[in-house]
């Protein structure tokens, strides 16, 4: 009789936990948990068809990542949609990406930059009225490609983290017609990279991603309207209960 492989159950559990983490994080990123709302663990576990033990592990991880807070009396609470905090994240991103683009300028090959130019030119062909989700995917892909060209995995991880925390605000921003400016600025950044103009690049990047507090406040005002009108327009969750494997229950 063959000996059971002890690794497989653990691997299945790990995969299920990663799937659960991805589902709940997506909900937090899109503000499906309304700002300041208490997370009902019992209801959320039922909705995702999981037990509370793995769910609580995920909620703790999201708290560490800045998507939730925790109160002794109320449990886990959804993050606020706060203009000053978002502005701080934009400032951090501007400094981070200035370092990324300098490193990419020094380390990216000519072939990689040619590929990046081709990507930007293809992106410009995507219609202006395309869904904001798709437009934001293209924008994030451009910036993450630059981070990978820096040959520094810490840059990549840091950028992925800050992108997730401002994703919703940037999605709203893209809906408001930001995309036309974005594409032209991407091309100017690529041209400076091709010239290896390391002195000009940080300024180009900062101008590209910087936002004033009043601009962010305007975007957040639209964001609140989107969050609170969403429930009236469609079902609240794009993640049905049977999306997470029942085998994840413990």
Automatic annotation (TrEMBL):
GO MF entry, a single one: DNA-binding transcription factor activity
InterPro entries to which the protein is assigned, alphabetical: GntR_C, TF_FadR/GntR_C, Tscrpt_reg_HTH_GntR, WH-like_DNA-bd_sf, WH_DNA-bd_sf
Ranges annotated as biased composition (Polar residues): 239-250
Keywords: DNA-binding, Transcription, Transcription regulation
Region annotation Disordered: where it falls in the sequence: 231-250
Coiled coil, from the record: none
Recorded superkingdom: Bacteria
Signal peptide residues on this chain, from the entry's feature table: none
Domain HTH gntR-type, first and last residues per copy: 14-81
Gene3D superfamilies: GntR ligand-binding domain-like, Winged helix-like DNA-binding domain superfamily/Winged helix DNA-binding domain
PANTHER family: GNTR FAMILY REGULATORY PROTEIN, TRANSCRIPTIONAL REGULATOR, GNTR FAMILY
Protein's recorded name: GntR family transcriptional regulator
Species for this entry: Achromobacter pulmonis
């Amino acid at each position: 009789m063959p000996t059971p492989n002890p690794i497989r159950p653990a691997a299945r559990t790990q995969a299920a936990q990663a799937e659960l983490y991805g589902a709940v994080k997506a909900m937090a990123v899109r503000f499906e948990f309304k700002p300041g709302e208490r997370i009902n663990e019992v209801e959320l576990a039922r909705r995702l068809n999981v037990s509370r033990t793995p769910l609580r592990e995920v909620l703790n991880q999201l708290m560490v990542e800045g998507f939730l807070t925790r109160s002794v009396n109320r449990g886990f609470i959804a993050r606020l949609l706060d203009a000053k905090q978002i502005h701080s994240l934009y400032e951090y991103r501007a400094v981070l990406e200035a370092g990324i683009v300098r490193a990419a300028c020094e380390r990216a090959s000519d072939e990689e930059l040619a590929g990046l130019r081709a990507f930007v030119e293809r992106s410009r062909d995507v219609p202006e009225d395309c869904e904001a989700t798709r437009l934001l995917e293209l924008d994030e892909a451009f910036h993450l490609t630059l981070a990978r060209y820096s040959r520094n995995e810490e840059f990549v991880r840091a950028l992925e983290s800050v992108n997730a925390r401002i994703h919703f605000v940037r999605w709203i921003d893209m809906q408001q017609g930001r995309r036309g400016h974005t594409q032209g600025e991407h091309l100017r950044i690529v041209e400076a990279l091709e010239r290896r103009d390391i002195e000009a690049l940080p300024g180009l990047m900062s101008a590209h991603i910087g936002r004033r507090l009043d601009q962010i406040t305007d975007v957040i005002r639209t964001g609140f309207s989107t969050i609170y009108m969403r429930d009236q327009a469609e079902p609240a969750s794009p993640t049905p209960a049977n999306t997470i494997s029942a085998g994840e229950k413990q």
